[in-house]
């Protein structure tokens, strides 16, 4: 049975590094811990917040309920004819898993190197970076149903993946806790170096035929150069999603802003670069009190020291309003605001 602690600081459990307290807090090290914890009906009735690395949340208040920290560990793999199935416990650090696969020469995760957070959050957020989205390598995940105490496996089609979305953030929010995830990787490397920044960095390094390890190192270098390191400057990566709009709305905006950065999505939608929109409104590198946007990537909000979650939230509201006033596009937060 895991210990339930009272009035626990969450400062070390969120990469923004803002202060907040959990009324109750439990660390989970195994699936059995979950079964034991929720066998108690008093626990089932508490408001619940599941956390992994705390890399995609902003605490604007204390949590008057139970925070469950998924910290179970373990990575295994099994080989099939052409692919490798890698299974990792929810509490594994995402980049440790990427390193495991890269070191074994399994292809598929290298473009997702150095994304902060844990394995359990990867399908919830449907993470993606540098030309690869998680759903291309996702096989299935195992999850604990809080109400029944039963485990269930979700296949890819059952997860309802779309850009930074899944069924776990929508219909099933608060009902299941992901305990492990299985990914289908390739034995023979299919390198994806289509992303401009990857091509530039490979050229800088004089690499013509990159290995999986080269891609992992190049992606890591790009991330380090663009994004602030949460261990020194609190942040949660991209604070907003890149907005997806209709082609007709896009044409209207483009007529006033011909340089607008955009990417087609399917045949009838356009994705805009939120970082560009925010930069155009003059916010890039701006410091306001203890918070601000990152100097190399306006989409990332940072804690310059003692920012409160509320301060960061209010700052993000100003950005949303300013982008809306100029482009008539309403940015949505990607981070979970608590
Ligand atoms: N841009 C600007 N100014 C900025 C930032 C970006 O003009 O301050 C423009 C640039 O023109 C650039 C374009 O926006 O070409 C796209 O920028 P970038 O390549 O940095 O990617 P992004 O769209 O801003 C997304 C993900 C990141 C992921 C990168 C790389 C989202 C919300 N964010 O950012 O994911 O690392 O692509 O693939 O989809 C995260 O989710 O936390 C995250 C960091």
Topology:
Elements: E1 4-9, E2 21-28, H1 31-38, H2 41-44, E3 48-51, E4 57-58, E5 63-70, E6 75-79, E7 83-89, H3 94-104, H4 121-125, E8 128-129, E9 132-133, E10 138-145, E11 151-155, E12 176-186, H5 196-204, H6 212-226, E13 234-238, E14 244-246, H7 247-256, E15 262-265, E16 269-272, H8 274-280, E17 287-288, E18 291-294, E19 297-303, H9 309-327, E20 336-337
Parallel strand pairs: 2-5, 3-5, 4-20
Antiparallel strand pairs: 1-2, 6-7, 7-12, 8-9, 10-11, 10-12, 13-19, 14-16, 15-16, 17-18, 18-19
The structure holds uridine-diphosphate-2(N-acetylglucosaminyl) butyric acid.
Précis, in short:
With 338 residues, the protein is of the alpha+beta class. Helix content is 26%, strand content 29%. It has nine helices and 20 strands.
């Amino acid at each position: 049975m895991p210990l339930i602690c009272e009035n626990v600081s969450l400062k070390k459990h969120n990469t923004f590094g803002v202060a907040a307290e959990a009324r109750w807090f439990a660390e989970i090290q195994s699936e059995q811990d979950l079964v034991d914890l929720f066998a108690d009906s008093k626990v089932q009735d508490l408001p619940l917040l599941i956390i992994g690395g705390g890399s995609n949340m902003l605490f604007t208040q204390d949590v008057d309920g139970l925070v469950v920290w998924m910290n179970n560990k373990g990575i295994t793999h099994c080989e099939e004819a052409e692919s490798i199935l890698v299974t990792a416990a929810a509490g594994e650090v995402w980049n440790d898993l990427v390193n495991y696969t890269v070191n074994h020469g399994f292809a598929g995760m290298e473009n997702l190197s150095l994304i902060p957070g844990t394995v359990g959050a990867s399908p919830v957020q449907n993470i993606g970076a540098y030309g690869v989205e998680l759903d291309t390598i996702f096989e299935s995940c195992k999850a604990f149903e809080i109400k029944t105490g039963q485990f269930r496996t979700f296949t890819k089609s059952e997860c309802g993946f779309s850009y930074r979305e899944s069924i776990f953030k929508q219909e099933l929010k608060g009902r299941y806790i992901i305990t492990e995830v299985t990914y289908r990787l390739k034995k023979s490397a299919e390198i994806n170096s289509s992303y401009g920044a990857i091509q530039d960095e490979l050229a800088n390094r004089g690499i013509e035929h990159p290995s999986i390890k080269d891609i992992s190192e190049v992606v890591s270098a790009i991330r380090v150069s663009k994004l602030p390191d949460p261990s020194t400057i609190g942040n949660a990566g991209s604070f907003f999603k890149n907005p997806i709009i209709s082609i007709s709305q896009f044409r209207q905006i483009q007529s006033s802003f011909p340089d607008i950065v955009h990417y087609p999505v399917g045949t009838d939608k356009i994705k805009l670069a939120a970082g560009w929109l925010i930069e155009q409104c003059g916010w890039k590198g701006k410091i306001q009190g203890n918070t601000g946007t990152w100097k190399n990537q306006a989409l990332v909000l940072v804690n310059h020291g003692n920012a409160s979650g509320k301060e960061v939230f209010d700052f993000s509201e100003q950005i949303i309003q300013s982008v809306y006033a100029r482009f008539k596009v309403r940015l949505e937060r990607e981070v979970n605001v608590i």
